[in-house]
Amino acid sequence: MRILITGASGFVGTHVAEACLRRGWPIHLLARSASYLRHLENQPGVSVFRGELHDPAAVNGALADVEAVIHCAAKVGDWGPVSDYRRANVESLRVLLTSCKGLGLSRFIHMSSLGVYPARHHFGSDESTPLPRKHRDGYTQSKVESDRLALQFHRDFGVPVVVLRPGFVYGPGDRTVMPRIIDNLRIDFVRYPGGGQQALNTIFVRNLVDAVFLALERENAVGQAYNLTDGEYVSKRRFIETIADTLDLSRPTRTPPLWFARMITWCYEKLYKMVGAKEAPAYNFARLKFMGLNLEFSIEKARAELGYRPRVNFDDAMAETLAWYRTQVPATPEAVEASV
């Protein structure tokens, strides 16, 4: 199967591209001119198309002769104008979907997020949970809108869309979230609002890649959305303490009440918005949700309809992730500081 992959320079997209190549599938990669793809572009079976997702000519060139699309590209973050996220995550998707109309694709995999659901505690929430019309941050707002857009193109134009909603994706190759967590552990900046026993919606990147291929293969997946996690209860405390213990860092001990953390977060966000800050405050709602809310989601639909069975358990996944991390960064705080 010849696949077009967007976002192949990113964490998830790289793993998806490498998995396609291991299967012997030729891939097209659509990437900006500045995107780093050296680890992929010289491999047999890889065709790189340089251009922007919002450029119909670039998109049409990359779509030539492909049978399926795996759309991983997205602007991620926890701060900034919603218009910036909407331009990257919604309008660019509209261009891509429009170019896919009438091509006879077998599948269009849209990589979404469990962040589309309401920003509250979740205890087994499934895909029937209504998505809010308005979120507090630009990223999750744009992901809700892009989910709706993708499924609308399926209903109106027959584009064979499958929406995948993974939780917090971790694994080798993550150069964004895991390094930030580790840096915060080094400076004793990690807290457990509400105690730390709340569920974290983890999914190991290879488990997510398995779900992508199941979605490519199962005919009954078309037109559906699927929640995806490791299917294993992992508390915030267990996740953080696994990192701390493996890397010989101190375990966090502070557990501020959730109401207090909400108040501090509200004050910080209000102040930063008043002054037009470009960078996110240290305390913002996206980070509070990650560390303070119970994020337990049902994956029973994916199990029943896709045959999804997470192959790698949390302990093995974290051991592999942190072993990779140790090969990528200096071991001491001084060396980390010098490398920035």
Molecular structure report:
This protein is an alpha/beta fold and 340 residues long. The protein has a domain at 3-169 and 202-232 and 296-311: Rossmann fold (3-Layer(aba) Sandwich), CATH 3.40.50.720. The protein has 13 helices and eleven strands. It has helices at residues 11-22, 38-41, 56-63, 82-100, 138-157, 177-186, 205-217, 236-246, 258-274, 285-292, 300-306, 314-328, 333-339; strands at residues 3-6, 27-31, 46-50, 68-71, 107-111, 122-125, 161-166, 168-170, 202-204, 225-228, 295-297. The protein has a seven-stranded parallel β-sheet, sandwiched between helices. Strand 1 (3-6), helix 1 and strand 2 form a beta-alpha-beta unit. Helix 1 (11-22) packs across helix 7, helix 3 crosses helix 4 and helix 4 (82-100) runs parallel beside helix 5 (138-157). The longest helix is centred in the middle third of the chain and has 20 residues, at 138-157. The model is unreliable at 331-340 (pLDDT under 50).
For this entry, give a set of tags.
seven-stranded parallel sheet, about 350 residues, 13 helices, disordered C terminus, two-stranded parallel sheet, about 45% helix, alpha/beta, Rossmann fold, globular
Q: Please provide the ordered H/E string of secondary-structure elements.
A: EHEHEHEHEEHEEHEHEHHHEHHH
Say what the CATH topology of the domain at 3-169 and 202-232 and 296-311 is. Answer: Rossmann fold
- Compute the gyration radius: what is it? 20 Å
Q: Assign the CATH superfamily of the domain at 3-169 and 202-232 and 296-311.
A: NAD(P)-binding Rossmann-like Domain
What is the structural class? alpha/beta
Q: Looking at the structure, what is the overall shape?
A: globular
State the low-pLDDT regions, or none.
331-340
Kindly state the mean pLDDT as a whole number? 93
Query: What's the count of strands?
Result: 11
State the helical fraction: 40-55%
